[in-house]
Amino acid sequence: MSKQLVKKYYTGYVRKEWRRLINSAYYKLEFDTTLYFLKKYLPKKGLILDAGGGPGRYTIELAKQGYNIVLLDLTSANLEFAKRQIKKANLQNRVNDVVDGSITDLSKFANGTFDGVICLGGPLSHVLDKEERNKAISELIRVAKKGAPIFVSVMSRWSLLVSQLKLFPQEIEHPLFRKIRDTGDYTGGYGFTACHFFLPEELKESFAKKSVKILEMVGLEGLGSHFQKKINKLAKNKKRWKIWLETHYKICTHPVVVGMSEHILIICRKT
Ligand SMILES: C[S@@+](CC[C@H](N)C(=O)[O-])C[C@H]1O[C@@H](n2cnc3c(N)ncnc32)[C@H](O)[C@@H]1O
């Protein structure tokens, strides 16, 4: 049920999703910080699974860097768009396959197929059922080679409460506010689609039980989370922006910053 809702939602937002990560300095923080950590941990070359890769922003970036990619997503409209972008960028020889599928069932791929697995910008958050989420985590790990890095970023629960305070303070009295606060679960229907908002310790625990070593947790928007206008203004001043970015990269792995960031990235290595 929630899968259908998610698919319908993203079918209506293909172009917006494609632009999302490069829209402004604020949104680029998520993209650039993720790329920074991909560079830190991915092997120099190899086959990468972009799971829940949407319209293919990371697929194209990594293909340009010389990786071979398999792109998988639930939303066919995203994949059709991605195919056009891949062709436009002349990267068909780098993108081995574009697959319509769910991260909860990667049975199309044998154990240990990929040199790196990325699942970025919240696909795991869109799996509302806890058992299914757990299955998705097992699948993402199963298809990675031993020693391969796995990167998963999700939406954060505390950050969602800040969004409510900032954008819809009158709705704090709605029962949904307490439900999300206490469970992280949002079944959709008011603007956004079905989503599980993670606590950092919850994300960590759900990977810690598996055959992986956790390498880092990162707050992708960091201390600047929710300050879209301030960040975009600051980015226009080269000198100040340089110092902000230096600060961001210095503290984005601090547990407090991780917990309040809009997106939380976990990086682990298959053991
Ligand atoms: C916010 S977008 C992120 C896209 C891309 N990874 C990025 O960071 O730009 C979330 C994507 O997750 C996909 N998605 C949601 N649930 C999924 C599932 N169970 N399996 C695969 N993809 C899923 C959606 O179709 C959508 O393309």
UniProtKB/TrEMBL annotation:
CDD domains: AdoMet_MTases (cd02440). Residues 48-147 form the Methyltransferase domain. InterPro entries: Methyltransf_25, SAM-dependent_MTases_sf. Pfam families: Methyltransf_25 (PF13649). This is Methyltransferase domain-containing protein.
